Amino acid sequence: MLYKIRIHRQSQIEELQAEEGSNLLQTLLQHNYDMYAPCNGNGTCGKCKIRLIDPAGPEPTSKGHTILSTEEITAGYRLACRTTINSDLDIRLDDTDFLKAKVVTEGRRRKVRLSPAVSKRFITLTPPDLEDQRSDSRRLADTLGLKQETASLSLLRQLPATLRAANFETTLLFNRTRLAGLEAGNTTAKLFGIAVDIGTTTLAAYLLNLNTGDQLATYSGLNPQKKFGADVIARISHTLEKPNGLAEMQAAILEGINQAVRQLTAAAGLQPTDVYEIVLVGNTTMLHFLLNLAAKNMAASPFIPVTTQTFILQAAEAGITINQNAIVVLVPAVAAYIGADTVAAALASGMSTRKPVSLLIDFGTNGEIVLGNSEWLLACSAAAGPAFEGANIHNGVGSIPGAIDSFLIEKELKYTTIGGEKPVGICGTGLIDIAAGLYKAGIIDATGRMATGTGLPNLPQSLKDRLAVIDGMAAFLIASADESAHHQEVYITQKDIRELQNAKAAIAAGIQVLAATAGIRLQDIEKTYLAGGFGSYIKAASAIHIGLIPLELSGRLEAIGNAAGAGAVEILLSRRSLHQAEKIKQKIKYIELSSCREFNDFFIDAMLFTEE
């Protein structure tokens, strides 16, 4: 039996049909509604809220009762992932704020000698006549000074028409030294490339003129796969649970890349066909999805990918809509959880070319950490979970307008939000600041336990008034309903602090393991590079105060922005840089933390907040 679902969004009402017994979240996703479901529909994150126009509609499930407050349930809020369609429904969807997330595109780049993998050469051939009846292919080879005719069959099919379209004036496209394409007339000025960083959460892309090395435009947006889960494990689960799950993942990321291509070229007054090379970096799972490779064996021990090699593909083969003769370069990865993005970030940092020891940290769901110098490199992936990205946090959000991104307790509580808008929740940098502020104020102790109002005689009454209990958990009010954009209180809870402790302990313990494996002290690390969007905005003092970054590294921290994107750009501009990336891949020794005995000891110690 089919039921009608009427969807109220802003001033529009849309209607779709769904089978009886189907899941509301899956139905909305199948009809291309952008739903934020970080837990992959398992009913644990509470982010896929919808609102019933008639609050007397379907009752929430037991998980819904656990996640949603009594006030929310009374107002008609339900979790889409826990709602089964057994009648006609009228629902309201709030604005998809997660689509407005702030994405860091800038990253520190090294100067490289311009030598892209693709190049063009304009030539003029002598037209044939009765005295010169050489074949078109022979004529081309002679003009190039070649003894052998090297044009492929596909090029030979284009050759006659292309030569005669502009009176035997033609432009040759080369992939390194291989003849890859033919174009009528002189098109040497049109030689553009795009570098793309495929993050689990976001996409960043850069359009460059390959004749000059100039950057013409940048693009940032969310990874369209985000609706299938916040982390790679959730997305791998989706590919295993759904018959066409892998195809959905590939289609989503291809659409994201092709959208970036369209927007970048339009911004520069170009066509997608003017793009002759794309360089792609990303974690190993993202690149598996792009290539339609099964990722299931990376989700469980011993965490084995299908491949970590460099790929150079034709654009058509890769499914990317650019010039038909363009190449697509996938940078090599190291292991299941040390991907091409980490290789590119290490390249951009320059750490593999210097004798002093450096540390690279890319905060995220799987925090990648690299330690080393020009002689050796060690790397690990710390399973920090999605707390830094706002998932599994009671009022957690991504880096969207209105996200609380900084926090301070002086005589009174102060916070800022992204864009200066009314608060909608707490993003990762805000979470770090809040924890540090509450710890300094004595509201949470070194073990992470949050006070409930007793035993704090020196705490100002204005702060005591913010202490609360939510669903049996201690909580602290950050923003009142009157202050917030959605007229709902913004709290941090005891569970949020525990999520943060797990995340920060994983990162800190990973750093300790690499240092111990290398036989060095943390004091021996000359420079620590903080990569990615989170690393760009994190307040170092707060990160050190809660023990996310070891105190020994204080004063030697440098934010380098989107280092993975910067590395991808470097590879786009220089063939030598791709060779360097491959050398970095070979040099890195991967440390699997799940089988490392020391990790658990370091992790337990790092759960505590730093004593100063």
Task: Describe the structure using short key phrases.
Nucleotidyltransferase, domain 5, 26 strands, alpha/beta, Ubiquitin-like (UB roll), 18 helices, 612 residues, six-stranded mixed β-sheet, globular, 24% strand, single chain
Mean pLDDT: 90
CATH architecture of the largest domain: 2-Layer Sandwich
Stated plainly, the CATH topology of the largest domain is called: Nucleotidyltransferase, domain 5
In helices, the fraction of residues equals 25-40%
Structural class: alpha/beta
Radius of gyration: 27 Å
Q: State the domain count.
A: 5
Q: What is the CATH C-level name of the largest domain? A: Alpha Beta
Strand content: 15-25%
GO molecular function: iron-sulfur cluster binding
Protein name: 2Fe-2S ferredoxin-type domain-containing protein
Domain 2Fe-2S ferredoxin-type: 3-97
Could you please describe the fold and organization of this structure?
The protein has 612 residues and is of the alpha/beta class. The chain has 5 domains: 93 residues, Beta-grasp domain (Ubiquitin-like (UB roll)); 67 residues, Ubiquitin-like (UB roll) (Roll), CATH 3.10.20.880; 139 residues, Nucleotidyltransferase, domain 5 (2-Layer Sandwich); 146 residues, Nucleotidyltransferase, domain 5 (2-Layer Sandwich), CATH 3.30.420; 113 residues, no CATH class. 30% of the residues lie in helices and 24% in strands. The protein is built from 18 helices and 26 strands. It has a 6-stranded mixed sheet, sandwiched between helices. A 6-stranded mixed sheet has the order 25-24-15-16-17-26, with helices on both faces. Helix 6 packs across helix 7, helix 10 crosses helix 16 and helix 13 crosses helix 18. The chain is globular and about 105 Å long. The relative contact order is 0.11.
